[in-house]
Request: fold
Amino acid sequence: MAAGCTVAAQAAPYVMYRDPGCGCCMAWAAHARDKLAAEVRVREDVPMASVKRQLGVPASLASCHTTLVEGYVIEGHVPAREITRLLKERPRDVRGLAVAGMPLGSPGMEAGGRKQPFKVIAFGDFGQRVYASY
Reply:
């Protein structure tokens, strides 16, 4: 990853909301720290349903953790590459990015080389659209 991308991605701390005991959430946080040089602050003291509702995460895109960075919502196991792209492009109509569910092979869901195809979905007032496919 280019150094410029890393600097752009680390401009603000990432605040990750999660349920205690979910190991894959911490694995995704490690991915963000490693690939984005991000400071990830973990919050386990809030009801996840309320967090998702307040941040406008569509129920169809819900995953196990929700992260805020620079005004954007990152829902679930979104790859660092797409977060870097989001923070570089800063689309005004996008509220956030999501990887619905917990697909094998997504960041934090590595499972012995097994992979499932998945899509990163951008969401906002426009609805939803595919941002990237893996």
Remarks:
- The helical segments are 3-9, 23-36, 48-55, 80-89.
- The mean pLDDT is 91.
- The chain has one domain: 3-133.
- The first helix runs from residue 3 to 9.
